Structures are given as structure tokens and as C-alpha cells.
């Protein structure tokens, strides 16, 4: 592939990074770390670190830049170790980005580890090989000129999928995640964006700024991570008349596995034997399709996804709902137990139940019922709970609405009723 | 309008922010009131509790005026 080195690799906050800049920074990198824990999740630094690890074939672990020290602790990690860097002693000098891409083909030891919010206790660690990350990446000459609007958190599975798709085709990435939404139309036009991938929540929020125009240059619109929203598809169709709209099923454990034109996901022929449903209609995926760290532990076993599905025919299924307690806030999974364990520590909170509230903006939202100490003022306690939550949790895990109750409902076995 | 202002201020107070004195129909929820998607979701749920209407259900809401139309037109 002949790549023009002046071509843009990434645009973030009005800063343009070309493939030439990227090559220079790879050549001149002086320190490295086996952890990626970047302040503000700066995408260029994250991508540079990932490409560097691929180039020199060392495993790397990726953490959200907004994790608090407590959240890092809970992953079983030590902040000091995470922030430790080493000096690079030997490095090669690459003259062209094509040489970098060739070198990457030869990797053996590389894997990337990320964390998924576990349903009980500690988040689970999942390591992926280059193969499991790029299993569904399409590489083709006709994709060479794709320009991607990057609308995901760069430290999560969906964002990494877009990154690899763009990197392997040496495309341009326009970072619009965390960007003020009113700038999105300008960015799409200015950089001639052809592909967008985002959560339904992101599209629903950016629609007010896009609806007065038609963007015929967009040829592909992808969404995933949340429940299918048919009304949203209708709106996207009118704004992006030339776009093929695809719904993707991906998870931290498995990467990207299924795609759908509407709400019926297709099981590819090669996965037929590796996908099944349980008696309770739960989607099960064979461990050989999962991240390396998982399938080594559990050979010949089935991974229960917690997603309830309905088989339409042998090769197609629809999602019905989630079986587990996990709450999906705009594409981010929240473990209610984690939030409860933290907030029970706030003085004045005698008991707390964290649950989901449905809404049309983010699908679900975290709310809490609290049994409070009668001596404490309600308003002050609400402020204290939120302040404590904001200091220790990622923002989508923070209960937005707190209600005071006399007691929390329990099942006969004494478990809290979460509905 | 007063009820809506109370709800917005309750949200701001609980989040440790200063309250605002007045709402104008022309105020943009995202640009003027600086509500992100999580805050918009919170506002939606609070309004649904109060007025029994889902403001984001079928359309695109951009300003305080858009919310008032929804509330008054239900």
C-alpha cells in the first residue's frame, strides 16, 4: 500500500497529527510503559502507545484515564506500578509508515489487556491477541480513503475496534468523543467524514445539530452497545441518505462478533458451531472465540453472555434483554453492587439500593434508594452522596436521582429487589 | 415555568452547583445550561416523575421552550 505520509492520522481538539508525525513520535519515543493510563484519555497518546507496543511486540494493559486511585486498587493494581515507566534502550528507525505496518505483521508476544465490569466483585481482566481484535476488521484498497468520526471512549472495546479498522487501512480518524456536539457538523464537513461508529445515545444527542442538513458523503453508519432503536434508524436514514446502517454486537470479552442490518443479527457460517443458546434462551459463545486470557482458562467451555435472545432461524437472532444485574448507561456497563459498596460508606447512609431507571436519552440511568440516618438533613446528605460518588467513580456510575425510603424491599431469601 | 426552574435548580444544587435565577424559552439545554447526555437523562426522568411525560420520547429537544411545549401540549 502506498501511503502518503502527509495524510492525516488523527484530528483531536483542532490539532492535526499526520502519519509522518506519528512515525516521528514512534522513532523518537524515549520511555514506555506496559500500562496505558493517560490523563483525560488523550487519544493520540493512547494510540501512539498501542502502536509502539505492537511495533516492539510487548504486551500492554489499558486503563481508563479517569479511573480514580480507588478504582485502580479495585482492579488489583498498584497506582505506583501503573505510573512506572522504563527507558527505551534499543530502537529501530523507520523511514516510512509502511515499514511500521509490515513489522506489525510479525508480532508474536503482543496482547492487549482491558477490564470488563464484572457482575460480582472485581472487574474481570480480558486479554486479546491481534487476531481477536482484528477478526472483523475489513482491509481493502477501496477502504483506503475512509475518514472515521471517532465517537467512542478510546480505552474501551468499541473504540479500539474503530482504531484498528482505521489503522489497518491507514485511514484518518476525526475525534468527536467529548467534543462539543455543536461542532460535530462542522467537523464532518471540514474533514469529509465517510464513516461514523457510535452508541445510540451518542446519535440521539448529536441529532439536534445534524437534523437541518443532509450529509450525503457519509457512506457507513454503525452503532452498537445498546438496545436497538428503530426510530433512531429512521432519523439516521434521513440525515445520511447514502449510508449503509449497521448494528454491531461486540463485547469486551469477545470483541466484535455479529452485525445486523436491522435488529436481526447474523451468525456467520464459520461461527455456527461456536454459538448456541441455553434452555433459558441465553446467548452462549464458545471460549475459543473470546480473548486469549479467557479461552486458555476455559477450554471447551461456553461463555454465558447474560444476553437473552430469540432465534429467528438457524443463522439469525434478535436480542430480547439482559439477564444479569448489569445496568447499561448509554453504552457503559455499571455494576450496581460496586456503587452500593462504595456509597454505603457515606456517613448518614444506613442502607442503599442502586438500580436502573429507563429513559429515552441514555437508555438507562443510575438512581438510588437510600435509608438514611434520621438525624441527618436530607438535602445535605444527597449532596454528600453525589460528591463522594463523583470523587470515586466514573461519571456514568454516579446515581443521578436519590430517593429516601423507610426500608428497602427484600426477596424471601433476603436479597434486595432491584426492580 | 417555575416548576421547571425548581427542577433544574434542584439538580444543580444536588450536584453542588450554584442555582440560576431565571429560565428563558430560548435557552439551549446543551449550550446555555451546559447539560451533557447524563444530565439530560436525569432531567428527563425528573420531568417524567413530575409531569408524567417523556420529553425525549419522539423528538428532538433543544431548548427550554421545546420542553414547555411538550409539557403544555400533553
List keywords for this structure.
heterodimer; A: 419 residues; alpha/beta; Rossmann fold; GMP Synthetase, Chain A, domain 3; 2 domains; 13-stranded mixed β-sheet; four-stranded mixed β-sheet; 13 helices; B: 74 residues; mainly alpha; Non-ribosomal Peptide Synthetase Peptidyl Carrier Protein, Chain A; 3 helices; globular
Could you describe the 3D structure shown?
The complex is a heterodimer of chains A (419) and B (74). Chain A is an alpha/beta fold. Chain A folds into 2 domains: 8-263, 3-Layer(aba) Sandwich (Rossmann fold); 327-404, GMP Synthetase, Chain A, domain 3 (2-Layer Sandwich). Helices cover 28% and strands 28% of the residues of chain A. Chain A is built from 13 helices and 24 strands. Chain A has helices at residues 19-28, 43-55, 69-74, 79-83, 97-105, 130-134, 157-168, 184-190, 200-210, 230-239, 292-297, 336-343, 378-392; strands at residues 8-12, 15-18, 31-32, 35-36, 60-62, 86-87, 112-116, 124-128, 147-150, 172-175, 195-198, 220-224, 244-251, 255-260, 265-266, 275-277, 282-286, 302-313, 316-322, 327-329, 332-334, 349-359, 363-372, 401-404. In chain A, the strands form 5 sheets. Chain A has a 13-stranded mixed sheet. A 4-stranded mixed sheet of chain A has the order 4-5-7-8. In chain A, a hairpin with a 4-residue loop joins strand 16 and strand 17. In chain A, helix 9 (200-210) packs across helix 10 (230-239). Chain A is globular. The N and C termini of chain A lie far apart (54 Å). The relative contact order of chain A is 0.09. Chain B is an all-alpha fold and 74 residues long. Chain B has a single domain (2-73), classed as ACP-like (Non-ribosomal Peptide Synthetase Peptidyl Carrier Protein, Chain A, Orthogonal Bundle). Chain B has 3 helices and no strands. The mean pLDDT of chain B is 90. Classes of the chains: A alpha/beta (419), B mainly alpha (74). Chain A binds chain B through residues 181-182, 201-202, 204-205, 207-208, 211, 231, 329-330, 357, 359-362, 365, 367, 379, 382-383, 386-387, 395-396, 398, 400-402, and chain B through 13-16, 30-31, 37-42, 44-46, 48, 54, 56-58, 60-62.
